[in-house]
Amino acid sequence: MSARRRFALVLVGGILLSLSGMFLGLWWVTFATGVAIGLALPRTWTALVAGAISGLVAWSEPLIEANAQYGLGPTSLSIAAIMGANGAALIPIALTVIVGVLLVWRARGSAPRCAASPSTARAQARLRNSVTSDWK
Q1: Tens-place pLDDT, residues 43-100
Q2: Are 100 and 34 in contact (CB under 8 A)?
Q3: CB neighbour list of residue 56: distance below 8 Å, 6 or more residues apart
Q4: Ramachandran angles phi, psi of 28, nearest 5°
Q5: Closest CA relative to residue 6, chosen from 58, 57, 60, 49
Q6: Is 89 helix (H, G, I), strand (E, B) or coil?
Q7: Distance of alpha carbon 110 from the chain centroid
Q8: Is the pTM of this model over 0.70?
Q9: Alpha-carbon distance 84 to 61, whole Å?
């Protein structure tokens, strides 16, 4: 399977899974989906992009709906005030995005690596060379 096709399938699957969770009231499914995306895509940056897009789409729908009904400006300002950033309603939103990106990044760090990848082969060669040079 090509990298573009895999990216598209993982992205669409992540969006559908996240949206399904949001519609069922399971808000935490978006975080689990971000971790799953991080494990499914082999490259860190593609996983970060797919996770960010999936989370953005999944959380945008209910936030847009709630904003239309109630207006979220005062709520966001209240959260910012609790955090000590009076008048900066964008800070809670930015921190939420950062947490989502860190979850995907962490998932990429814990994913098993392919033993045949060039970076793994280089690392093994360096380790072998350092061990053999210590014995000489």
Answers
A1: 878 888 888 888 888 888 887 887 788 877 787 788 788 878 777 778 877 887 787 7
A2: yes
A3: 97
A4: -75, -10
A5: 49
A6: coil
A7: 13
A8: no
A9: 28
- Dig out the tokens for 48 from the structure: 């970060």
**Cα separation of 127 and 66, whole Å?**
55
Residues spanned by the domain of 95? 3-135
Place of tokens 């096709």: 5
SS3 assignment, position 125: helix
Q: What is the pLDDT of residues 109-122, one digit of tens each?
A: 665 555 445 556 66
| Number of domains present in the structure of the chain | 1
- For residue 119, give both structure tokens: 């970076």
What gap in Å lies between CA 94 and CA 98, rounded to an integer?
6
Cβ contacts of 24 within 8 Å, gap of 6 or more: none
Looking at this protein, which amino acid is placed at residue 21?
G
DSSP secondary structure letter of residue 114: P
Cβ distance 54 to 18 under 8 Å? yes
The owner of tokens 């699957």 is 13
